[in-house]
Design brief:
289 residues; single chain; mainly beta; Jelly Rolls
């Protein structure tokens, strides 16, 4: 059977409502909400901030476990320090990406960087959860940490794209993924247009960080997400405004596997989910020193 060709139509338009997560971090959560569950293979989409913090006001995400999926942290402003139960410790700042494969399980924390905590400043970025296929859920945990200057940048007239994963404008992304995924951060000058490859088999979404996007004749405002039908192999959007547009475009091949999910664990069966809780309570995922 031949695949659909052409531009994909709009499926839904969602607002990411305000919420609080971790130790009081302000977020806009696109999903899961009462409007939308996971968008296979993506499990969660949080935009933290943007918020201007006074000295010693910054908060983070204290020690917590994960198993069965990946967490992707992309910082636009501010900084986070992370530690885990395997002894890993690092810092990610503006433009940096941490793609953490939790796999069989670990305990980690994400706290404000010392400079942000002591002196205050703007905090903004994203955390997105990506499901792992059944065959990879119990792989050993590992990280892909990529500094901002190592993320490839694709350009065309009026358009710049930071290619975290996948491909845009002929440029390959920095991250290796378990399943086909595109994670693209576009900046469009007023009047600029993008036509991005997005296979019909993949779920796709466009989230506006700053400015206004227009796709299929529909305006997509700040803190809003557009999802697309699988009736074409490209996504078209433009900047109809007078200020630059910043947007994330995500696409991913759905796993189409059963999901057993509760809190920080995402498995395929209730029995596997219970085992994850048992392992965590027994200390088999370790503790942070």
């Amino acid at each position: 059977m031949s695949q659909p060709t052409g531009t994909r139509s709009l499926d839904a338009l969602l607002e990411a409502p305000l919420a609080s997560e971790g130790d009081g971090v302000v977020i806009h959560r696109a999903f899961p909400t009462h409007q939308m569950g996971e968008i296979d293979p993506f499990l969660l989409f949080d935009h933290f901030g943007p918020i201007d913090l006074a000295p010693k006001e910054a908060r983070g995400f204290p020690d917590h476990p994960h198993r069965g999926f990946e967490t992707v942290t992309y910082v636009l402003d501010g900084e986070f320090e992370h530690r885990d139960s395997f002894g890993n410790h690092g810092r990610i700042g503006p433009g940096d990406v941490q793609w953490m494969t939790a796999g069989s399980g670990l305990v980690h924390s994400e706290t404000p960087g010392r400079n942000l905590y002591e002196h205050g400043g703007r905090l903004q970025g994203f955390q997105i959860w990506v499901n792992l296929p059944r065959k990879d859920k119990m792989k050993a945990p590992h990280y892909q940490e990529i500094s901002g200057e190592k993320i490839p940048v694709a350009k065309s007239p009026g358009v710049e794209c930071r290619v975290v994963a996948g491909e845009a404008l002929g440029v390959q992304g920095a991250v290796q993924t378990h399943t086909p995924i595109q994670y693209l951060h576009f900046t469009l000058q007023p009047g600029a247009t993008v036509l991005q490859s997005a296979p019909a088999t993949q779920n796709a979404m466009l989230y506006v960080i700053e400015g206004m996007a227009e796709t299929q004749g529909t305006a997509v405002g700040r803190f809003h997400m557009a999802t697309f039908a699988g009736d074409g192999d490209q996504i078209a959007f433009r900047n109809p405004g007078e200020a630059p547009l910043q947007a994330l475009l995500l696409t991913g091949e759905p796993l189409r596997e059963p999901i057993a999910r509760y809190g920080p664990f995402v498995m395929n069966t209730r029995e596997e989910l219970q085992q994850a809780f048992d392992d965590y309570r027994a200390g088999r995922m370790g503790t942070i020193a």
